[in-house]
Amino acid sequence: MECTFMLLVLALLAAASAQQQYTTKFDGVDVDNILRNDRLLTSYFNCVMEVGKCSPDGTELKKRIPEALENECAKCTEKQKEGAQKVLKHLYEKKPDMFQQLEAKYDSSGKYRAKYKDRAEKELGTKIA
Asked: Per the database entry, which stretches of residues form a coiled coil (predicted)?
């Protein structure tokens, strides 16, 4: 009986830990292609800014942004973390207006800018105001 209980607990823990990551359903999205294509980038941007229609992956992204910012992307897969870094770097360097609008929407208090400043400076290789 005790062995059965332990197996049940282990199974529940395994199931719970498997649910600790965001869905990988959209991990195959070609982030580089989106960043090269202004029409696609604008479509995703409008989605997360809530001024345009969202594709299924855009809806998932928009839903996850606040939590990912709060918990340092703890539920993100490595691929999702790499994609997020790539997008943020691209927006910061090449589309500063979009970056500022996103920051105003998702970090109006500056909490996350302060939290991630050192990491961002290291990633970008430049000082951030």
From this structure: none
